[in-house]
Specification:
The complex is a heterodimer of chains A (478) and B (482).
Chain A lengths: L2 E12 L38 H13 L3 E2 L2 E2 L2 E4 L9 E4 L6 E9 L5 E13 L3 E5 L4 E5 L6 E7 L6 H18 L11 E11 L9 E4 L4 H20 L7 E6 L4 E7 L9 E2 L6 E2 L2 H9 L5 H12 L3 H8 L2 H12 L4 H19 L10 H12 L5 H11 L6 H7 L8 H14 L1 H8 L4 H13 L6 H14 L1
Parallel strand pairs in A: 12-13
Antiparallel strand pairs in A: 1-10, 1-11, 2-6, 3-16, 4-5, 4-15, 6-7, 7-10, 8-9, 11-12, 13-14
Helix pairs in contact in A: 2-3, 5-6, 6-8, 7-8, 7-9, 9-10, 12-14, 12-15, 13-14, 14-15
Chain B lengths: L7 H10 L4 H19 L2 E4 L18 E5 L26 H8 L3 E6 L33 H8 L5 E6 L5 H7 L2 E4 L19 E6 L2 H11 L29 E5 L9 H16 L3 E5 L7 H16 L18 H12 L2 H14 L5 H24 L2 E5 L15 H6 L2 H8 L4 E8 L5 E7 L5 H14 L16
Parallel strand pairs in B: 2-3, 2-4, 7-8, 7-9
Antiparallel strand pairs in B: 1-3, 4-6, 5-6, 5-10, 9-11, 10-11
The chains are: A alpha+beta (478), B alpha/beta (482).
């Protein structure tokens, strides 16, 4: 029998507001435990939440970008459960009237398959803290720094049929949210977290099978592997005549397998009810219009524009727009009069190479568009050759050092003085009479050797073109 | 001159004129507390050191000693909600109301006893022992702000701040012969009030006159950016607005508040109060308000539901009491909460948990919210016709200690006249309007439309210009203001 996998996603995204959702504590990642918190976000008795208006703005902007309808009068609800990382013992979330509903996200998989993923809802909520277990003293400690960091949870309909579609959707989602500036979407810091609901059914069936929910998926790679593993596990169970149990399963990266965490059949009752401390929110037509007007140019639009305006190949535009920070970098360099194709080559080659070698994201890099523009200009003006320029780039990349100062201090400027080049060539001829004779006897190979010797004598700073021409001219005069 | 007999405004006047020093006033109050506390147990915490306010400001109550109910957060001072589970919890912050009153020169003498987590009508459920009524130490002072009402009645403080979720300021004020006001929901910041039922809780004054209440409300009302439910309404001017002129004011008497279950002596005293208002030119008439019969069940469902969530944070992990022996996390929670909460609190947490559970939410909680809306619109309709409503505060005068807790359902039903005011978010005041044959005080309630706090206070003031019930003081030990 052929089986079809059915997948729905619940994605939690931390919003990039400066302060938390209900108090003025910083949302900055990290920090010594319990230093980014206050009586409000630790739920001390008597304290009250006051909504950070930015959270609402970011959620609406995300919803608009995902083609959702916006709930103009929405409310918060309380989700009640006991756990030490949740100091109020309830999470302020949205159940009854989420801020956004009924969205649609067009995706294109790596294999070129196009489809639309429907968004069931997008709602706002607060993050919980973290529990840190110390095995040495066998104690668990609570760190509330993350309590109250604003989240949006984006819930899709069960529209995915394979891991490729899931990855394409997540990449699209990440790009969209980054372009909006509402989240940095860093999976390794947990600012984008994804739970995967998966079931299988015989191909052609319209009924859904029993689903499981997978957690602890910390990378796109883990998501793809977990989907493949879990689909196979469920199919094998059914083929063996067993049944799939509705439960939450944890992905174990090291074991490459999922393990049951808790059964949904005796799931806890969250006793949702309207949050009485926060009045219902009204979104005016003016606000909605403003948020709509503030929607930035997204990746697809940039790709098209780079192709028509700059004549860049489709491949280049896809690479550059994959991260908003790279696209911003590119546009800034072009605005500084860099040739678009040159800028694109540098970004796809050197810049992305450095980033990947350092495991960095573009948004965190110090290297500035101005420095790249300067490098490109120096090469264009013949003052640096390309290879030397790459060396300068590598030297200044980390701290965005001064390009001109580096070139000066290391005497890297291209030797364009014809007299100097000629003098070097003459010296090379004098030192290598055999090679000169070989060339005159018709051995083309000897020419390359003479070029190499000349470049070496000039410490690589000469224009290869000038060296070639000079050697040719002098050989003819012999 | 017995300073402890003065109203807060009278004392403030003497402080300002220099007739009385702050030290004298504080000493007089401390002496009264020392004598009364062993008898009536009005305080959970009596302040060790009381410093006079620096420089008497222009504020009308500057330098006047007062006290807070023990569910109001006071920085560095134990705030217990009269519960074992909070242990010696000392908040690292002041409630907004505490900041505002301190800035206005208030001098706090300590924290007042109450029903545990403000759940109760008798102030008997406190972990720190029951409060007793200064008029008769064998009787309850009412609740849950029983310590506040008893302390004001006994002359221990000139005014107190209580909280009122379903009558917890007004009913103890009535039982203790003092004046207590629950202002319009949202006019006093709840920041720093340890929540019982967030959508109904509101703090307010208990004092010896409506004018004192107006003076306190002038200081504590007004928008607070730390409370999202606080209203952006104009505040202040209540004291200045007390003209006592109520000519032409239309006062409605809901007939449904004078039916079965109302004690005859209470009925007579409240209807006599109507005559006093009439004599000052108000137009008084009866009208039906049948929805009031649904108020008690709707109130208990909503209040308990919110309480079950609000009180979940007391789990032994972060502050307060933690069970001494436990094997795992679940046991830490269950033992801490089993040992830390009293039985009335547990009853309400269980009720609230039940009504929010899957399968029961629609039948109970959702329906209660609908009833709340119906009650609110019935009041809105009544206020199309009337400026004020006059009702009893409680069906009887203060019962004996120990009589009520054995029959919680009966106790809940006695909240009939007060809870609808919270459900509708309205201002309500309790004014002394007589005594029963046993000499226990009776209270009358005046209710106004939302933000009609000034109308309510002015009518109460007019009533107090004609009567002297609010000037009577108990003669008992632990009372002894007379």
């Amino acid at each position: 029998m052929t089986w079809e996998t059915v997948i729905g996603l619940e994605t939690h995204v931390e919003l990039a507001t400066k302060t938390k959702i209900f108090c003025s504590c910083t949302t900055e990642f990290g920090g010594a435990p319990n230093t980014h918190c206050c009586p409000v976000c630790t739920g001390m008795p008597g304290t009250l939440p006051v909504l950070n208006k930015r959270v609402l703005e970011f959620a609406v902007k995300a919803g608009l970008a995902l083609n959702c309808s916006i709930t103009r009068r929405c409310k918060f609800d309380r989700k009640n459960y006991f756990y030490p990382d949740l100091p109020k013992a309830y999470q302020i979330s949205q159940l009854y009237l989420p801020i956004c509903r009924d969205g649609a996200v067009p995706i294109r998989t790596e294999a070129g398959v196009e489809k639309t993923i429907r968004i069931h809802e997008l709602h706002m909520e607060e993050d919980a803290g973290k529990l840190v277990h110390d095995p040495w003293i066998d104690q668990t400690r609570a760190d509330y720094n993350r309590c109250g960091v604003p989240l949006i949870e984006i819930v899709t309909e069960p529209d995915f049929r394979c891991a490729d579609e899931v990855i394409a959707y997540l990449e699209k989602l990440r790009s969209t949210l980054q372009y909006l500036g509402v989240s940095d979407c860093k999976m390794q810091e947990g600012s984008l977290r994804c739970d995967v609901n998966l079931s299988v059914r015989p191909a052609g069936s319209t009924e859904f099978g029993t689903r499981t929910e997978m957690k602890n998926l910390n990378s796109f790679k883990a998501i793809a592997r977990a989907i493949q593993y879990e689909a196979r596990r469920q199919i094998e169970l059914i083929e063996e005549g067993k049944r799939v149990i509705q439960e939450t399963r944890r992905w174990d990266e090291n074991k490459d397998a999922t393990f049951a965490m808790r059964s949904k059949e005796n799931a806890q009752d969250y006793r949702y009810f309207p949050e009485p401390d926060i009045p219902p929110l009204e979104i005016s037509q003016e606000e909605l219009d403003r948020y709509r007007a503030e929607q930035p140019e997204m990746a697809e639009a940039k790709m098209a524009r780079y192709q028509t305006d700059y004549g860049l190949p489709a491949y280049d535009t896809q690479m550059i727009t994959a991260q908003k920070a790279l696209a911003d970098f590119f546009e800034a360099a072009v605005a500084l009069d860099s040739d678009p194709k040159q800028a694109s080559n540098w970004i796809m080659g050197q810049v992305m190479g450095q980033l990947s070698a350092r495991g960095m994201e573009a948004k965190d890099m110090a290297f500035s568009p101005a420095s790249l523009a300067r490098l490109i200009a120096l090469v264009k003006d013949g003052r640096l050759n390309r290879n030397t320029a790459v060396k300068v780039f590598e030297a200044v990349f980390e701290t965005d050092g001064d390009v001109d100062a580096y070139v000066r201090e290391h005497s890297l400027e291209q030797v364009s003085d014809a007299g100097l080049v000629q003098k070097a060539v003459e010296e090379v001829f004098a030192a290598n009479p055999k090679s000169v004779a070989d060339y005159q006897a018709g051995k083309q190979k000897a020419f390359g050797f003479l070029v190499g010797q000349t470049m070496a004598r000039l410490k690589g700073r000469a224009s290869p073109q000038v060296v070639n021409e000079t050697i040719k001219a002098l050989l003819e005069q012999l | 001159m017995d300073l402890c007999q003065l109203t807060a405004l009278e004392l403030a006047e003497k402080l300002k004129s220099g007739q009385v020093t702050q030290a004298d006033a504080i000493a007089a109050a401390q002496a009264r507390i020392a004598a009364a506390q062993p008898e009536n147990n009005a305080f959970v915490t009596v302040a060790d050191e009381v410093s006079p306010t620096a420089g008497l400001s222009a504020s009308p109550l500057a330098g006047v000693p007062m006290a807070y109910k023990d569910n109001i957060c006071t920085k560095g001072v134990k705030t217990s909600c009269a519960s074992k589970i909070l242990g010696d919890f000392k908040p690292p912050y002041d409630a907004t109301i505490v900041e505002r009153l301190r800035a206005a020169g208030a001098v706090s003498l300590g924290k007042l006893n109450m029903d545990e987590f403000a759940m109760g009508s008798t102030s008997e459920t406190s972990f720190y022992g029951p409060v007793k009524n200064p008029w008769d130490l064998s009787r309850v002072p009412g609740g849950s702000s029983g310590g506040a009402a008893a302390a004001v009645a006994a002359g221990e403080v000139w005014y107190a701040i209580g909280s009122d979720t379903g009558g917890s300021i007004r009913q103890p004020a009535a039982y203790c012969g003092v004046t207590g006001m629950k202002p319009t929901y949202g006019t006093v910041s709840r920041y720093g009030l340890i929540a019982y039922a967030s959508s109904l809780d509101q703090m307010g004054p208990i004092a010896r006159s409506a004018a004192d209440c107006a003076a306190v409300l002038d200081l504590i009302q007004g928008r607070d950016p730390r409370d999202g439910t606080s209203l952006d309404a104009p505040a202040g001017g209540l004291l200045a607005g007390l003209t006592g002129d109520i000519r032409g004011r239309r006062v409605g008497i809901p007939a449904d508040c004078f039916g079965d279950g109302l004690d005859g002596e209470v009925r007579r005293a409240v209807l006599a109060a109507a005559d006093v208002l009439r004599a000052r030119g108000a137009v008084v008439e009866e009208f039906p308000l049948p929805v009031i019969r649904y108020a008690v069940p709707a109130y208990y469902i909503i209040a308990c539901a919110e309480a079950s969530s609000n009180l979940s944070r007391f789990d032994g992990v972060k502050y307060g009491w933690r069970a001494e022996h436990y094997e795992d996390l679940t046991e830490l929670y269950t033992k801490t909460r089993t040992e830390g909460f009293g039985s009335e609190v547990k009853r309400r947490i269980l009720l609230g948990t039940f009504v929010l559970s899957t399968g029961y939410y629609d039948a109970y909680y959702k329906k209660a919210l609908q009833v709340k809306a119906v009650i609110k619109s019935a009041f809105d309709e009544a206020f199309q016709k009337y400026d004020l409503l006059l009702t009893p505060v409680a069906p009887t005068t203060a019962p004996k200690l120990g009589e009520s807790l054995s029959d919680p359902l009966q106790m809940y039903l006695s909240d009939i006249y007060t809870v609808s005011v919270n459900l509708a978010g309205l201002p309500g005041i309790s004014v002394p309007c007589g005594f029963d044959a046993k000499g226990m005080p009776i209270g009358a309630q005046l209710i106004g439309p939302a933000l009609g706090d000034g109308v309510v206070l002015n009518a109460a003031h007019a009533f107090q210009l004609e009567t002297d019930y609010h000037k009577k003081a108990p003669a008992e030990k632990g009372g002894g203001r007379a």
